[in-house]
Amino acid sequence: MTELTKELKQSRSSRFSDMWTSIYSNKAALTGLVIIALLVVCAITVAICDALGIQILPYDPNLADMDNAFVAPCAEHWFGTDQLGRDIFSRVIDGTKISLSVGVAAVSFSLILGTILGALGGFYGGKLDNIIMRFMDVILSVPSILLAIAFMAALGRGLDKAVLAIGIVSIPEYARIARSCVMAVKANDYIQAAIVSGDSNLRIIFRHILPNITSPIVVRATLGISIAVLDTAALGFLGLGVQPPYAEWGDMLARSRGFIFSAPYTLLFPGLAITITVLAFNLFGDGLRDALDPRSRRR
Amino acid sequence: MLVYFIKRLLMLIPVLFCVSILVFLIMRVFSPDPALIVLGQHATTEKINMWRESMGLNDPIVIQYLDYMKAVFHGDFGYSYFTNTPVTDELLARLPATIELSVLAIILAAIIGIFLGVLSAVKKNSIIDNLTMTSALIGVSMPVFWLGMLLIILFSGYLHWFPSGGRIDTLMRPMDGTGFYLYDTLIIGDFEAFFNALEHAILPAVTLAGYSMAIITRMTRSSMLDILHQDYIRTARAKGLSAVSVIGKHAFRNALLPIVTVIGLQFGSLLSGSILTETVFAWPGIGSYSVECILRSDFPVIQAVVLIIAVIFVVMNLLVDLLYAALDPRVKYSEESA
Amino acid sequence: MTEKNQELLLSLKNLCKYFEIRNGLFNHKKSYLKAVDNLSLDIYKGEAFGLVGESGCGKTTLGKMIAGLYHPTSGQILFNGTDLAALNRNDRRRFCRDIQMIFQDPYSSLNPRMTVEEIIAEPMIVNHTHDKAEIGPRVEHLLNCVGLASSYKNRYPHEFSGGQRQRIGIARALAVSPKLIICDEAVSALDVSIQAQILNLLADLKEEFGLTYLFIAHGLAAVKHISDRIGVMYLGSMLEVAPKESIYNDPRHPYTKALISAIPVIDPKKRKERILLTGDLPSPIDPPQGCRFASRCFMKCNQKDETQILKPCAANHLVACIKETPDPKHE
Amino acid sequence: MLLEVEHLTTEFATRRGPVRAIRDVSFSIEKGEILALVGESGSGKSVTSLSIMRLLSSNGTILPGSSIKFNGTDLMTLSEKQMRQIRGNRISMIFQEPMTSLNPIFTVGDQILESIKLHTKLNKKEAKEKLLHLLDTVGIPNPVKRINDYPHQMSGGMRQRIMIAMAMACEPELLIADEPTTALDVTIQAQILDLIYKMREKFNISVLLITHDLGVVAEAADKVAVMYCGRIVEQGTTEEILTNPYHPYTLGLLKSIPRLDDYSPRLYMIPGMVPPPEEVPEGCAFADRCDRCSEHCRQALPPLKVIADRKVRCINFEGQGNL
Amino acid sequence: AALSRKPQDNIFYATSTDPLGLDPALVDDNDSGKIIGNIYESLLRFKNSNTEVEPQLAESYEISPDGLSYTFKLRQGVKFHDGTPFNAEAVKFNIDRQMPENLVPKMSYAGLVYGDVKSTEVIDEYTVRINLKKPSTPFLHNMAMLYSAPMASPTALKKYNNNLMQNPCGTGPYKFVAWDRGQQVIVTRNEDYWGEKAAVQNIIFRTMPETSARVVALNNGEVDIISGLDANVIKQIEDSGNMIFKTDGMNVNFMFYNINVTKNPITKDKDVRRALSMAINVPEMVATLYKGYATPANTLLPPFVPGYSPDVKQVQYNPQEAAKILKEKGVSTIKILTYTGARFYNPVGGQVLAEAVQSYFDKVGVKAEVLAYDWATYKNKLATAEWDIGFMGWTGDNGDPDNFLNLFASDDPINNNGLWYNDEYRALIAKGVELKDGPERNELYHKAEQIMADEAALLPISHAQVIAAYRPNIKNFSVHQVGMTFFKDVVKE
Ligand SMILES: Nc1ncnc2c1ncn2[C@@H]1O[C@H](COP(=O)(O)OP(=O)(O)OP(=O)(O)O)[C@@H](O)[C@H]1O
Ligand SMILES: Nc1ncnc2c1ncn2[C@@H]1O[C@H](COP(=O)(O)OP(=O)(O)OP(=O)(O)O)[C@@H](O)[C@H]1O
Ligand SMILES: [Mg+2]
Ligand SMILES: [Mg+2]
């Protein structure tokens, strides 16, 4: 009896544990995961402390301290200070909040819309599919960052708008993936079996198709966050990003441009922060893909 | 082939039509009124109205759109709000710089990317592979503009190897010509100027190429690995072909198909990447110009830039598809020939 | 076994399935791929009907039309007298519990995200054939029926071998107690030793549940064991239908003859002269005029004028060949 | 003796550790002979053939102690370069999947010419003549036109013919055919088998025919080796093995095949399943499915018994298998 | 023909942006002005060191006693770069082009320069008379301005469709050669110049958007002169042995309160405004932000402009008092609207400035929210959003006090951003335009300025200095208060 229950438990979780083992044994993916976890903890802690009015960062990231402008990295200011004497370390840490939230929000937005549109198109095919995909073609025919820039140039800066701009431009990505996955899944005999069993379309979509297309979409979403973080930074750099005085990495870089020779540290750390964040999501996404890759499993 | 080509070309029309509406909506409907800044510090409300009238901004939006499109078909993208010169002139004057840089970058990215990708696929899991893949991963993770600034600090700030901006030393500037300096200087045989222009182009080209190079490397590697597992590679080896011919002929030619697609798509992202790169390097192309225009809300210019890049992008994609078709005999243009 | 004393379960009348193929500029030129062309067939209650033919001749398409996966271009599918082809999708669903299907590829026919129990319970749930409380025990019962331990019900498909998966597929098909099961190459993907197991299982289940089979296969060997009657399909139409003994001992159509002679015989002493067909199956987009088989036929009668239709030639034996003069006795 | 394989053992490095795909496989082929290697999926047939060609994927190694003598030279000792002289020239190969075994972006003519050019010193014109001749031999109608076709423009049977033409390009001494007909229709299968047979007659080559279909064996082979779980369990002439199998596995296999002349309602079936390669037991791998199995079988690997020109790896075999 | 590659023949002048264009009537930006000043000339010009006027293309002028007509005697033998002779017809052509009936919207200075002109008469070939609608003291100053006033070739104007943005043609010491978009404008010596010819052959106005890049280029010797500097880079330049030129700029940078734009903002209350102004230590802030390259402003007027008075009393810095008042008034949060980029009068940019102010408010217990937008959006937001404090500035055009002070006598929120209404102030400004320069006029402006200070309509912050840096081998280099360099006399050794 105990033997049996143990066996059952194992088999139930085996899919998950397989994936976990695969990630766990992939050093790069694990590193990515750990960094992401750290970043998330940073962002959440900062946000909570902010809301409660507790100062957890060494300095207020937005408060100018004119007497201490352009202090090179030292014991008091690990990453130095900027033109207004604000502590770069505090600002970089504070910036995690923005980058992650814009990334996650934008990806969620495009993921939800894109998946729904793509899945509908892929499942029903025909005219609906044609209309949806032509619409996606329109968005796709403008390079995504350019479109985001155009949006921001017109709408003006702001957190919500950045999310919208970055989100909209990546909808087609998800729609395409969802669509091709749905079509691939649809070609499987188990869908035919479901139809023969008398399942309704809705049931087929939710019970048979969606659970089977999550892996590639989740992988894409992980990588999508990295792209969204890069895009946020690019918008910030062009002066189109998040509303100041929020510490946003791209904006910090833009402002340190004037001092690249006189105070290079002002541009080193925000840039590193972006790179590390993006790298972490890329590492994890790649690992996740390997773990979920159907080619490395089955048969 | 011709039928397929025409068909694809005709399919572009509705897409581009919708793009134009989209861009027009973004720029005209959702954007702030630029009149206040266009007219400088001596603007008055009365003058602003006059200006809006003269720009046709008081017409119904549909009329505005139709007028705009009518003009666009005649190659007229309207007038810059600021300089009051035709947008077409402004862009044409800057286009050579951007094309020169993009072409240089895509060549760089393609050659190096493919080379490294093939190398690491063939030497899978070796030190070279790990090193290449790590660099490629960092390459796709680094913001272009940051990379650019780091390169400037290193190569022009400390090492003084390359200039930090501009296209050529002014005095070497070719006096008349196409605007493609590398070409112009070569044509007149002014090698000093040619190398000067090249020197200026290297850092921005490397920066711009960085991301695409990384993507192409990764893509090449995975596509090569895919192909190397195919049955026909086993067939080729069973024939007694050497590793070089198996990889170079049988594997690479097949792997090239997805790579060509990626390179084509990268050209589009390169064009938009040039917005950031040109800004960092003060490269006088449409990229840096559009940033300038974005910052002062010169919407006719932004609108034109987005439209033009969309057209280039879409046409590039078409070319890539055609090239793909030319490279892959499996793609059929139409059933009739069969 | 005579037709007279048997109850008709399924009757296909002039069934056609044309797939539209568009090409040309703007996709305006249409041509049709005639996957199933003007095919008529009767299947009786309790029999196993074997359907053989080369790859691409339209066997699967036919099976899918009966199972409701494709809508016929024209013709009737009379199931117990009801024309399924005339029903809309919702009405057609009421017949799902009567007609089930077993698929060729055991790897793709089971949803990898569902447990075995969920998979087998699915048809019962959507067809409301059983109460919630009944479902659990019934799943275990079905698993036992197909020779699997009931403790397997909480596992996922990827934990099973191909043969075991095929059993799960069979259990799913049995769940709603169907009257007709369509087996589309149900054993082709399996190893010989496993093939035998599944064929036996299907034969046993047929006896136990009084099932009717439409058994689709490439080769004659596999069908033979399980079928009562066999139909030979070629390029979307039926060339010959007869009880299996007649097909093997007295094939009338040249294609059937070639097909039988192509079956390798295990006995090395009996290495026989083969009838080797030349060429491949012609394209179903532009099927040859007249006799479908004329282009590969070794009889060289070059029948280009008259499309051959099934005509009786002996007791319970239908054939579509000009060389076979109808047997007036059986007209 | 053209090919003598002795104690061939091949191992794959996998995530779950090393997997021995074939163990101690020995057999030999004489000139002009067709040897069939039969066994169910996963029994190691392809690995055997790839080991002979030294074309294993990078995670596979042939363990020391194995020897593959071809015309007296041990292929194991050859350098990669010397091996290339043999591949496609003296030993050539055709594969199961005609759909994927040809390079999709070169014309079939080019792909065959490549082989010819690689191993012969013919000039362009001669090579082309040879190509046309070859295509004619393998029964491709209208070869002049067909050489410019791409693989996707041909049917499965045609492609398999192209594969054969490519294999025969340099008139090899040994042809390894790995399930050449499995993916094809019965009528086409008959054509291809017939072709292989003809080639053997015409060029007097030896063939290692890999298949899981005993029917194909009966039709084509002179000798048979039966594989189960990476080992050869029985070996002998086709006639003897098919009429009088010693090993219970061979017997079961033969009995479970539907026969045209047999009208019994039930097929014989071997109980159980083939164990996955990681879980192959120490003793006889077939023990669990065998009705004659004894404790001995489970404990130690039964030795290979040699009876006249037959070999069988079973301690309980009956002298006369009754079919 | 190719440019001479001899170093002393070329002066490179690097600025941050491309000019908008090179037609004086159609532009209003400093980057265009720098070039225009060397290609074109006006009837009058500012003296080298201040904003007093002296003749240029006019040899002399007479003003009628009622102040309504100005008669100019023109210099003879002057030719435009395209060979067109300069004469009274040309003057009339240039002025008529900017009369209301011919106005195109981009002629943003036409109203300021010629707004009071009634008609222009050609008396003879070299005499021209301009009639005004009402007396205007700033008019003579206007005739020396960089924008609108310079004389362009009528032939060229006809040829290029009334638009010389890309084909400038004047009478100045340099003539146009080429404009590579985003890179440079090249001008070369006018060998037919009527006066003493320029010393250096070519001037190349390079566009280098990044301050740091300009500094590096200067220090490397790639360019000879750079402008658009901020305080942070001065030391670096001096350390490399290069020279800094600085002069007081004719501009003002100020913070203003929302008084009547939206309905009843907190800052409608004069005491709140005063308290907020009191919270900011202007001199300290200016010193840290601008590092000595801007002077704290006492009033809107730069010290060298007539009418300036050091005696105007602004609200004094007093954080305790400010905190007290603000607490009493219940002001705890405040919304600051600002622009992101740098402006001529505020080289560090509006956002940095606002953030500095924000930290001062923080010290008196007021939490300020800073909303920064690009310039266009910012301007729109001023009219539509909820806000309490904004930032703005003004660059003087002609050195007349009216040019600064009349902004706040306007009903147009585009000029009078906070919509501050004060009748007394308005009356004083209206009177000032007509008074002749002199103590009486100055006294009147003094009074007006004090009213503005008492009402705390705005808080003057700084006057940015015009800073440029140049290599030591450049001689006679100077930048005029209006922001441009006349290259005629500059020498490169
Ligand atoms: N959905 C479809 N759209 C277009 N053509 C189809 C479709 N399904 C099948 N066909 C075509 O119809 C013909 C008959 O196909 P079908 O699958 O019924 O053959 P089959 O006899 O089952 O072959 P196999 O033995 O290979 O399974 C083929 O030529 C096939 O290409
Ligand atoms: N590259 C490899 N890595 C790991 N294991 C392998 C590899 N190639 C083959 N194997 C294992 O070796 C065993 C024998 O495989 P092989 O391909 O020889 O079987 P086969 O007899 O040819 O079967 P089939 O009839 O399916 O072709 C299988 O269990 C397989 O899992
Ligand atoms: Mg089928
Ligand atoms: Mg195999």
Précis, in short:
Chain D has 323 residues and is an alpha/beta fold.
Strand order of the largest sheet of chain D: 7-8-9-3-10-11-13-12
Our measurement of the CA-to-CA distance between the termini of chain A, rounded to an integer number of angstroms, reads 29 Å
Query: Considering the protein shown, what is the CATH homologous superfamily of the domain at 3-79 and 174-180 and 206-312 in chain D?
Result: P-loop containing nucleotide triphosphate hydrolases
Rg estimate of chain D, integer Å: 21 Å
At the fold tier of CATH, the topology name of the domain at 3-79 and 174-180 and 206-312 in chain D is: Rossmann fold
Look up the CATH topology of chain A: MetI-like fold
Q: What does this protein look like?
A:
Chain A: It is a multi-pass membrane protein. The complex is a heteropentamer of chains A (299), B (338), C (331), D (323) and E (493). By secondary structure, chain B is an all-alpha fold. Chain B has 13 helices and no strands. By secondary structure, chain C is an alpha/beta fold. In chain C, the strands form two sheets. Chain C has an eight-stranded mixed beta sheet with strand order 6-7-8-3-9-10-12-11, with helices on both faces. A four-stranded antiparallel beta sheet of chain C has the order 2-1-4-5. In chain C, a hairpin with a 2-residue loop joins β4 and β5. The longest helix of chain C has 18 residues, at 192-209. Chain D is α/β, with parallel strands linked by helices and 323 residues long. Chain D has a domain at 3-79 and 174-180 and 206-312: P-loop containing nucleotide triphosphate hydrolases (Rossmann fold, 3-Layer(aba) Sandwich), CATH 3.40.50.300. Helices cover 32% and strands 23% of the residues of chain D. Chain D has eleven helices and 13 strands. Chain D is globular and about 65 Å long. Chain D starts with a strand and ends in an 11-residue tail after the last strand. The mean pLDDT of chain D is 87. Chains B and E meet through α3, α5 and α12 of B and β10, α6 and α12 of E. Bound molecules: adenosine-5'-triphosphate (2 copies) and magnesium ion (2 copies). Residues 59-60, 184 of chain C line the site of one magnesium ion.
